């Protein structure tokens, strides 16, 4: 099973991977590889993790210009594709139309021995894709849906297709799992168990969203949707900041009403509920995994008064931070 990426203009092979059949690794261990992209194509990386039935790939690349590459793959795969930032498209004889992704979109793709060309466009490209062996994927596919049955039949007939012609938006729950996968620092069999669970959870969310088509509809204008995602990104990257709703809205060039209404429509929660939840999740992770004390953690997530942090943490988890810290200290 081989995947090859090459540049037809210069005749050079950029990436060539020979994967075990059905991504099988005899001893059950994980195989990993990081490929670095260098000028003139851009700067960045693509990290691959491979174990039985599953291949995970994620990367972040900065581009100066559009990139056009050619690809060849001699195997079948079901791909859970998540476009976090940037635009990409693939053109292949397997599909009647070009398959294009924009920022914040996801879908599930069945590809049968594909070849063609891919184009990447955007100052920053960030993607995560999970390729599953088709027989393994079908075990998770419910049977009480015309959409899922049609996709199953396409796999069995080896007809490349999208599970749904329209891409869906990446939800907050999906973002959390994607982040967990990207930043997983476990080793060996524990990493594999963890990633297997996260892949199954992510697939569940994708299939649920597809089953409930209402979750993918939106009355927001595309330009407003992009601004709301930009607020989400700002929050994730600036947990120690304290901004008003007006500050956040003005930062991305919208107004308070559009931000408030749009955030709720896209993510099913308010801006500040999301900000608080992600602060508490990060604090919990630091308490369990790090050596920082409660005052330091409180400051890192934007609380000047540790008592206010403790109150918010107890409201979220029904446990004060010092109790969790002490329990972690006993087991470490």
UniProtKB/TrEMBL annotation:
**Molecular function via GO:** DNA-binding transcription factor activity; methyltransferase activity; sequence-specific DNA binding
* Signal peptide limits: none
Tell me which Gene Ontology terms the entry assigns under biological process. Answer: methylation
Q: Record keywords: Transcription regulation included?
A: yes
Which organism's genome codes for this protein? Chryseobacterium jejuense
* Residue ranges occupied by any HTH araC/xylS-type domain in the UniProt entry: 229-327
- This protein's UniProt keywords: Methyltransferase, Transcription, Transcription regulation, Transferase
| Annotated protein name in UniProt | Methylphosphotriester-DNA--protein-cysteine S-methyltransferase
Stored Pfam families: HTH_18 (PF12833)
Q: What EC number(s) is this enzyme filed under?
A: 2.1.1.-
Q: Which gene encodes it?
A: adaA_3
